[in-house]
Design a protein that fits this description.
single chain; alpha/beta; Arc Repressor Mutant, subunit A; Rossmann fold; 7-stranded mixed sheet; 3-stranded antiparallel sheet; 16 helices; 10 strands; 44% helix
Length: 338
């Protein structure tokens, strides 16, 4: 048996250390919590002034900014701090703000500690670390559940831009968002599709904050909220379009067929179903798809599926794949009753 000779490639060592730098996401998280980017909206500030406005420790803030600037997140020119394109996305008021994405519940990031068990057994790491499934945990810890909803809402702006450019939503009179969380996506969609009515369907605790999102978007008069579980309850009938956005990759094949079957039962002969989530399609960014597959397995033992796998599940639920639309965010699968 030949033993591979060990090599000492300095470049590979430094690259590995950079890729494994778990300090970076936590430093980004910290400046998001402290609202550092928000204080630079009107232009650059000195470190001292920025520390004063953000109520932070000046010397430690400087160290954080020096570190983040090595990754092109903020610039630090002498004593002057300014936003970069990436740092600008950390502003709370940015139309495509990524701030909430970095404020995921700590329980979700802690789940990564169980990845060795997950790789060994195939079980979700979250369950191993916390002794309970992610969905049950979020239901029992409302603050974390709300934080998770905000993470999901954090990419809504980018998703919406991709979705509106890819499909003509004006042809649908009623849009039902199944598992639509706090309603931020449906609210944004209805604000742009002026003639449509909307129905938000999700668990009672999840939709409890939906009225404020719908009202803020000025669409509360065109949307109604129905509480229930897509795993067991009847899904509101009468929709022209049904949306499952980032839902199915969290569940097993058997559970997915059940969800799709309940959607099919609610659909009329002319209804359309739109499945929007990272998949494993040839035209999709393989890095994004593989990252999402690993993340979802860590949290729920779910994962991204190929188009053929998704089509098979649709067929089992009495649905027919009509087309798959490539977008910069994720592929959109459009299905109709078989």
């Amino acid at each position: 048996m030949t033993t591979r000779r060990a090599t000492a490639d300095a470049g590979s060592i430094f690259k590995l250390l950079e890729l494994g730098d778990y300090l970076l996401p936590y430093t980004i998280r910290a400046v998001c919590i402290l609202g550092v980017a928000d204080h630079l909206v009107e232009g650059p500030l000195t470190v001292a002034e920025l520390a004063k406005r953000s109520q932070t420790h000046e010397a430690t803030l400087r160290k954080s900014l020096e570190y983040l600037s090595t990754r092109d997140i903020f610039t630090l020119d002498g004593d002057l701090v300014d936003l970069t394109a990436m740092a600008d996305l950390l502003r709370a008021d940015h139309p495509y703000s990524a701030r909430d994405i970095f404020l995921s519940p700590v329980a979700c990031t802690r789940a990564m500690e169980g990845l060795d068990h997950s790789i060994r057994t195939g079980e979700p790491a979250f369950d191993v670390v916390h002794g309970i499934s992610m969905w049950k945990y979020l239901a029992e810890h409302p603050e974390d559940g709300e934080a998770f909803d905000r993470v999901m809402s954090g990419v809504t702006g980018l998703e919406l831009m991709a979705i509106l450019r890819s499909c003509d939503w004006s042809r649908f009179g009623t849009i039902v968002d199944v598992g639509g969380g706090n309603g931020s996506f449906l609210a944004s969609l209805l604000r742009r599709v002026k003639g449509a009515q909307g129905v938000l369907f999700d668990l009672p605790g999840v939709v409890s904050h939906a009225p404020e999102f719908l009202a803020a978007a000025g669409v509360d008069g065109r949307a109604r909220i129905v509480a229930g579980s897509f795993l067991s309850d009847e899904i509101p009938p009468g929709g022209d379009a049904y949306v499952l956005k980032r839902i199915l990759y969290s569940w097993t094949d058997e559970e997915v067929v059940g969800i799709l079957s309940r959607v099919r039962a609610a659909m009329g002969p002319q209804s359309h179903l739109f499945v929007m989530e990272a998949g494993r399609q040839a035209e999709e960014d393989p890095v994004l798809a593989r990252r999402m597959a690993m993340l979802m397995h860590t949290l729920t033992a779910g994962g991204a599926r190929s188009l053929a796998q998704q089509e098979n599940l649709l067929n089992q639920a009495g649905l027919r794949l009509e087309r798959s639309i490539s977008t910069p965010m994720f592929p959109i699968i459009e299905a109709v009753p078989a």
